[in-house]
Amino acid sequence: MDYRFLGNSGFKISEITYGNWLTHGSQVEDDAATACVRAALDAGITTFDTADVYANTRAETVLGTALKGERRESLEIFTKVFGPTGPKGPNDTGLSRKHITESVEGSLRRLQTDHIDLYQAHRFDHFTPLEETMQAFADVVRAGKALYIGVSEWTADQLRAGSELARQLGFQLISNQPQYSALWRVIEGEVVPTSRELGISQVVWSPIAQGVLTGKYVPGQQAPEGSRATDDKGGKDMIARWMSDDVLGRVQDLKPVASDLGLSMAQLAVAWVLQNDNVATAIIGASKPEQVHDNAAAAGVTIPADAMATIDEALGDAVVSDPARTHDSSPKQREA
């Protein structure tokens, strides 16, 4: 496993992060989740990402239990705050001082730790003054409950405003967690250049496009039984955008590229995002330990320039690159 610095800080994380969105506490049983965490540790992964909203706090609990007994100093534990949790009351969502202050305590308890390495604003809150949010994060850092602060799916302008306030308050934003893959490149036009300027790294999610870039979905054929495309608990909806025969056919054209490089399709997809020098780590999810080992092998892989060009040519206009899609990801109304 290789490691990279996160943003303009001295904090290093593994190039592959194990994440438990859509899996722990919902799609897979706890013993399977624990087996995947053990596989991640065996593969040299030291960085783990979750969020209080995943499975309505259950994912944090499962991860905390799975990591219990590990040397805390050898782990980097990330979680997030924003989404509705608990009974979803009027203050159970957003980035208000109240919600951040109460949420960090709940996350610490569920993760069975006295500090969070990276505490992230899961989305931008259009209803809370940014000054209030940043002051609350500053207080969380000063109290030692979080060591670093990051955000997720913020636009370039939001990153710039948040970074400036953070500096005024004596801390820094060091990361942004966006969706990024060979098929979804909306951060490249504005978010990545701004992040480089501000000293912010990307912690990217969905590098294999919900599994589509593994090539297991074939045009004109039924989705494999047990795959995300057949999951009625949420996975099917998330992957729907990629399930057209045109996109799936283009992905099939990547198989010779992966074969020539001695990589699986999943490894090619994960290695592709890691070629971007502003990406610090790629988050992988898994329902089986063998998936963890396969994806983790993408660490340290260099894809030659001609292969990168072939990937671009094969995917063509199936690639989504409109920067405005980042702005669309933040809720414009409070979920109750």
TrEMBL record:
User: Where do the segments described as Disordered lie?
Assistant: 317-336
Extract the Pfam families matched here. Answer: Aldo_ket_red (PF00248)
Q: Which residues form the NADP-dependent oxidoreductase domain?
A: 15-314
Q: Which domain of life is it from?
A: Bacteria
> Which keywords has UniProt assigned to this entry?
NADP, Oxidoreductase
Which CDD domains does UniProt cross-reference here? Aldo_ket_red_shaker-like
User: What family does the entry list?
Assistant: Belongs to the shaker potassium channel beta subunit family.
Quote the PANTHER family the UniProt record gives. HYPERKINETIC, ISOFORM M
Q: What is the protein's given name?
A: Aldo/keto reductase family protein
